[in-house]
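User: Predict structure, ligand FE2/S2 (inorganic) cluster.
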Amino acid sequence: MATAFARNQWYVTAYAGEVGRDLLGRTVLGEPIVLYRTEEDGSVVALSDRCVHRRFPLSASRLDGDRIVCGYHGFTYDTSGACVYVPGQQRIPRTARVTAYPVAEIDSLVWVWIGDPQLADEKLIPRAPHLADPEMVSVRGMEPIDCDYGLLVDNLLDLSHETYLHGGYIGTPEVAETPISTEVDEAAGVVRVSRHMMDAACPPFYSRSTGIEGRITRLQDIEYFAPCLYLLHSRIMPVGRTEPVFRTEITYAITPAGPGKVYDFWAVSRDFAREDDEVTKFLHDFNHTVVMQDVDALNLLQKALDGEPAGYQELSINIDTGGLAARRILARLAAA
Ligand code: FES
Ligand SMILES: [Fe+2]
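Assistant: Predicted complex:
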């Protein structure tokens, strides 16, 4: 069963660093969007990625100053999406305009509002300040997955899979063995899942980045701001000690691209070994490997589900409490 899309919401569409003077095409909730940054003041523009003439992708076209010139017959659009030039005639048809999407660049993320522009309110955007905090060092990436975005939400809200899918990377037996506590704020659309492991093996992700050799106290506190932003606040310390505390913030943005397609934006931010480029490279490459384990699993899972008869039964247990709450919230947002 596909998870319904929630419109009238902000979605992470790119990292700020991805948007510049090269046209970038992304698809959000099935809507093709072209992104670029203006010469005038460096602000990000998000327009519909289909020329009104014959629907040529504007992302495959070119910029002339802050205007996009369609690469097929030259229809030219300004930053508001209005067509300001058509070839071979003076009169510009009244309907010659592409949608301009509300955009907000916050915490090094480019958020685009999908829905009624009148309702776009930047104050609704959940924050991930660590991504732009000079006291933290971040590595990041994005992987497209061919799966229902609900499968990625499920995956991230239940980290007991770390023990099995990511064993030897970030998983140890204690993750699956330690019960979770879940808190749901239905009205705000926020799900919080905590797992506090007081005496756990230290997986390579943390031993190689922090230098800790023995066992650790490992605190995982998840906050999911439906539909798009997921934060995992991770705190590691040597077992039996209260310091030093190694703080890692793991961020995901879950952006449905279209039916059965999702962008998996991921970032790892840390407050330790900040000058150490080897740690930076290690965390980037290692986390990319971990993300690809999820990507492969979710691509496979979606294929398996596609072959199931309609109305298949699932079996849920305690570890699924957060994921089930997220599904309820997503269903409510989609119906709104
Ligand atoms: S398709 Fe864009 S100008 Fe013809
Ligand atoms: Fe995972």
